[in-house]
Amino acid sequence: MVMKSLFYFLEKKQSNSILCIIGPTGCGKTQLSLDIANQYNGEIINADSKQLYKDIPLTSGAITKEEMNNIPHHLFSFVSSKKIMSVAEHRELAEHKITEIYSRKKLPILVGGTALFILSLIENYQFPNAYDPELRKKLEEKTDSELWEQLQALDSIESEKIPKSNKRRIIRALEIILLSGEKKSAVTTGLPKYNFLLLHPNIQSREILYEKINTRMEYLWNHGIKSESKSLSVQNIDQKHPAALAIGIPEAFALLSNTITEEQAIIKTQQKARNYAKRQLTWWRKRDDIVYCDADSFSIEKIKDSKSL
Predict the structure, then answer these.
(1) Segment (H or E) for 50
(2) 30, 54, 205, 275: which has the highest count of C-beta atoms within 10 A?
(3) Are residues 67 and 32 in the same domain?
(4) CB 186 within 8 A of CB 180
């Protein structure tokens, strides 16, 4: 039934369809997206918040030009690390790309592990237009702890979703409350714009996934994280910037300042990546409209064969 659902979604080719390939790092999203895009005339849109930034393509695991295999890819490695891109801004850009892809009579395929990027599109989040430079300046002068306690008092539900160290997200949540009078935890949704299918590669076991993540992060440490962290440091990028908070970069900064050893930095990077994958799995487990498939043994032939099931 899983493959049958996917077959009918892909074959219908409704004018407003988007395929969303979701899941944690290391589960096979990229190859799955390439296989489907190649067979079903698709174009791929990035839905990973770190793969937006052009200064950390290796650290973020962004697909390379060679790996794209001549399939059009959009919103990868194009934002300067001196700019911060919000969920609302990403959605606006993604919607433009989706419209362009429809005009070419192709299938938009969103791929990434940032749940809010996916949900803002498929559930049509209505974002309050809340920004004031003077308020932003006052909030930025406060400590992480002071900001989090303020948010906890005003919106306890949202405060539990945000780590105390994520100053940028805490400030944004406070701005929405203080300027619009609405809690961020109560963000409303509009009428759905798209017919969507959420496709999630199966996870054989957490142990296997975590081992893949450990191997991947050790490789990235030696083939991207160290060099890209040095580049960010030279550019004097704010260490609270999203690019500077990509998994492995804070640990590389700590190594550069001689506060930890390289072995400790790698272990911390691997642990942080495993914890992030766990949160991603937990987030998506709440939904009952996800189609799961075995990415390792996936084939287009299986989709076609499902028609007769």
Answers:
(1) none
(2) 30
(3) yes
(4) no
Residue-number span of the structural domain to which 86 is assigned: 2-126+189-203+288-308
Query: What value, to the nearest 5°, has the Cα angle with vertex 220 and ends 215 and 221?
Result: 100
The CATH code of the domain that includes 172 is 1.10.20.140
Q: State how far the Cα of 134 lies from the Cα of 111, in Å rounded to an integer.
A: 37
Residues 93 and 232 in one domain: no
With contact defined as beta carbons under 8 Å apart, do 120 and 49 qualify? no
- DSSP label at 62? P
Whole-angstrom distance, CA of residue 293 vs CA of residue 3: 8
Kindly state whether residues 254 and 148 are assigned to the same domain: no
164: which residues sit within 8 A by CB, 6+ positions away?
Answer: 144, 145, 148, 170
Convert the pLDDT of each residue in 162-211 to its tens digit: 888 888 889 888 888 887 676 766 666 777 889 999 999 988 889 999 99
pLDDT at 299 over 70: no
Could you tell me the sign of the dihedral formed by the alpha carbons of 222, 83, 53, 171, in that order? positive
CA 28-101-15 angle, to 5 degrees, is 100
- Of 201, 223, 225, 221, the C-alpha closest to 277 is 201
Task: Judge if 62 and 198 occupy the same domain.
Answer: yes
207-224: pLDDT as tens digits: 999 999 999 999 999 999
Q: How far apart are CA 90 and CA 121, in angstroms?
A: 9
Q: How many domains does the chain have?
A: 3
Output the domain CATH number for residue 232.
Answer: 1.10.287.890
